[in-house]
Design a protein that fits this description.
Layout lengths: L1 H7 L4 H32 L12 H4 L8 H20 L2 H12 L4 H8 L3 H19 L5
């Protein structure tokens, strides 16, 4: 509602309904896209996020101190290893991989963001995934 008021207050009242529903639809799609990305990223580190409508989300928050030192060290090493390999990729491959995998953009959106062709995005992404699989193994991706 706030976005509608901020951006479209000057529009005629007849346009408000369709604009509101368009904004709402985009926000819902973004929420599901972010949720899928979060679950994918958490899956890389052996954690999984499940929504249960009957349970308070606060009750699902894990105690950071509940992990054993070995679990913390293993998770930290995995994050450091992934970060190191991603940083070692050429910039365009980093961009394509992060935009497609973490941000959840499709090829066309990624191409617009990177200001290149769809084919170029596919090539950069494919090369990035190949390097990551080679250095980290298939279970990561």
């Amino acid at each position: 509602m706030c976005k509608l008021v901020d951006k479209y207050a000057s529009r005629s009242p007849e346009e408000w309904g369709p604009l509101f529903h368009t904004i709402l639809q985009r926000m819902i799609v973004d929420w599901y896209r972010r949720k899928a990305v979060r679950e994918r990223v958490l899956g890389w580190f052996g954690r999984h996020h499940h929504d249960d409508e009957n349970v308070d989300p606060i009750q699902n928050v894990k105690d950071a101190y509940g992990k054993t030192p070995e679990q913390e060290a293993h998770s930290g090493r995995r994050v450091a290893m992934l970060d190191s390999v991603i940083r070692g990729l050429p910039l365009r491959q980093q961009q394509a991989f992060l935009l497609r995998t973490l941000e959840g953009y499709d090829v066309k959106q990624t191409a617009q963001i990177m200001k290149c062709s769809d084919g170029s995005v596919k090539t950069h992404y494919s090369r990035a995934v190949h390097v990551l699989r080679e250095k980290l193994g298939d279970e990561w991706l």
